[in-house]
Write a structure and sequence with these properties.
3 strands, 3-stranded mixed beta sheet, mainly alpha
């Protein structure tokens, strides 16, 4: 028998946090029947076929595919490129868990009943990062429709958004982004990346690591609160 005892991946409190909040996601958006029809979205051929699009048209195409896998095809979204000069230097950095901020690689906003998602055009050269960004912002969209409050604390909402992106089927994309961020900033490539511009939350990935869960093929569309 191997003499070393295997350590748990996360501590008991973090594991319970995942269980409680994931159970809330399942109960709130679709329940078991829809969740059973889910698909795990992977960065492999067949999931995001390219049709030769370029520029913003390519971004729109990718967003529609992400919405499809999230079961949110009919949810209206205005996609806008963010040409902030500082954020646009992001071609060499990892998205990891994209969050709201001055130079965020992706943002979600609601004005009345209109939903807008922004993205940094430099991400078009890194489709996996763009997909992770869109999954994260669509997770914000989904959570904005929740009729009940989640079990997590208010200051853990971004952690919940990360978990929701995994619930939507994009756990592998999110985890890969975190791994890339850690490799750049903590591994042999340290110092070779541009400033993260407040868009990467490596501490989040350590504290509440996203699980590679399955998504639902459709979710219950609830109205955005004006």
């Amino acid at each position: 028998m191997w003499p070393l005892k295997r350590k748990p991946i996360v501590d008991a409190d973090t594991a319970q946090w995942h269980v409680d909040n994931f159970a809330w996601l399942v109960a709130t958006f679709g329940r078991n029947a829809a969740f059973a029809e889910s698909v795990l979205v992977l960065p492999k051929p067949g999931f995001f076929p390219a049709d030769g699009q370029e520029g913003h048209t390519k971004a729109l195409h990718i967003l529609e595919r992400v919405k499809h896998y999230c079961g949110m095809e009919d949810w209206p979204v205005e996609l806008v490129p963010d040409h902030n000069p500082a954020a646009d230097r992001s071609s060499t950095i990892s998205v990891a868990m994209p969050v709201h901020g001055k130079h965020a690689l992706g943002t979600f906003s609601v004005k009345g009943n209109a939903v807008q998602i922004s993205y940094v055009p430099a991400l078009l050269a890194h489709p996996e990062r763009l997909i992770a960004t869109f999954a994260h912002e669509l997770a914000h969209y989904l959570l904005a429709t929740a009729p009940t409050s989640p079990p997590c604390e208010d200051d853990e909402h971004e952690f919940l958004t990360d978990l929701t992106a995994a619930y939507l089927g994009f756990g592998v994309f999110m985890a890969n982004s975190v791994f890339e961020f850690e490799a750049i900033h903590d591994g042999p490539m340290q110092g070779g990346a541009t400033d993260a511009l407040d868009t990467c939350r490596s501490k989040t990935s350590c504290s509440r690591p996203p699980c590679s869960s399955r998504s639902r093929s459709s979710i219950r569309a609830l109205p955005i609160n004006a």
